[in-house]
Design a protein that fits this description.
Order of helices and strands: HEEHH
Helix content: 55-70%
Number of strands: 2
Distance between the termini: 107 Å
Largest sheet: 2 strands, antiparallel
Radius of gyration: 39 Å
Shape: rod-shaped
Strand content: 5-15%
Strand order of the largest sheet: 1-2
């Protein structure tokens, strides 16, 4: 029973009338006055929020601005192809740089004598078959 009375109290508070008066500070003359309720303020703020969200979304969707936003997924086909090509080139350049770095490290080891010598006489090589037969 208390929940029903709480709901009616809340509804009454939402519909209570309030007056908003804008006054001139020097002359205390009323410039503008509004009759408001909590419900009307809530509806006005909610409508303003929805309007701003719709305006922002339409600005992004219907203008070229969407091409400048990262992560949205828009872009023309040419830009997407160029991006993929650049990514492939960057990856291949990175691999080439790593291989070159490994080559120079190994070359430094050989020149400084830090590489161990291996005996190649003990290698087991497969026997070659005669192809002429």
């Amino acid at each position: 029973m208390t929940s029903k009375s709480d709901a009616t109290n809340r509804l009454k508070r939402l519909r209570n009338n309030y007056r908003l008066v804008v006054m001139n500070e020097d002359t205390y003359e009323e410039v503008v006055k509004f009759k408001l309720t909590r419900l009307s303020v809530y509806i006005a703020m909610s409508s303003l929020f929805v309007l701003l969200v719709a305006l922002t979304a339409s600005l992004i969707i219907f203008t070229p601005l969407k091409y400048y936003l990262p992560g949205v997924g828009y872009g023309n086909v040419k830009q997407i192809k160029e991006y993929r090509q650049l990514k492939l080139r960057a990856d291949s350049m990175e691999q080439a740089l790593q291989q070159q770095d490994r080559y120079y490290q190994d070359l430094q080891k050989v020149l400084s004598g830090k590489i161990t010598k291996r005996d190649t006489t003990n290698l087991k090589m497969p026997k070659m078959e005669n192809i002429d037969d």
